[in-house]
């Protein structure tokens, strides 16, 4: 049996969007898992390359015997199905479109990840960038779950640039990767982490001899070691190192 229909999108629409005439936009019915959603197609078509292409196609009706079925998405009886999308993902997407313009809009981390998932699969490019900022940026939930962040990045093609703090944490910690972490990461990521840990130990335990006129910037200090780890991570993952923390050595000039 179909679950009780959710509140109509009008219930979520802001006064600003009413003034803009959004309610004049055509509604489309979607089925996500066992739930029906009636949505203003404007939000989907304007923000998603996939939905824009979908709505640009001519509507077709199915004829069976003497009867002609309604076009897909025009009624509860014939919704557009979105396989692979969860209720949480689609509901979060609607909440984002109807509420994100309000001051103080926020979501818990699981909802941002759900938003990233549907944005990734349906090419909501601006939504995807916002979700990445919220998950990986300075305002992200603390403390960070590094295993989760790396797994999410691999699944949704997030740039390794956003993973530098998580990777540095894994490289510098004394404990090896757990079985759960190894199972969560791709073979390539596990190999790179192992390589980075070895390189970090080699460069901090047995640093190369300093050339004449060079002195350690912060010998064996936390900032020095973190700087080494960032250098190692950025080299192995081939991303730019924008950090300005002290590096292993500095030049001493004589005049």
Give the topology.
Blueprint (H helix, E strand, L loop, with lengths): L14 H5 L7 E6 L2 E6 H7 L1 H8 L6 E2 L2 E2 L11 E2 L5 H13 L9 H14 L2 H12 L9 H10 L8 H9 L6 H6 L2 H19 L8 E3 L5 H16 L11 E3 L4
Helix pairs in contact: 2-3, 4-5, 5-6, 7-8, 8-10, 8-11, 10-11
Pfam family, one: BTB
Organism: Lactarius akahatsu
InterPro entries: BTB/POZ_dom (IPR000210), SKP1/BTB/POZ_sf (IPR011333)
Can you tell me about this structure?
- With 255 residues, the protein is mainly alpha-helical.
- The protein folds into 2 domains: 9-57 and 73-142, Potassium Channel Kv1.1, Chain A; 155-251, no CATH class.
- It is built from 11 helices and 7 strands.
- The strands form 3 sheets. It has a 3-stranded mixed β-sheet with strand order 2-1-5.
- Helix 5 packs antiparallel against helix 6 (125-136) and helix 8 crosses helix 11.
- The longest helix is centred in the C-terminal third of the chain and has 19 residues, at 187-205.
- 24% of the residues are buried.
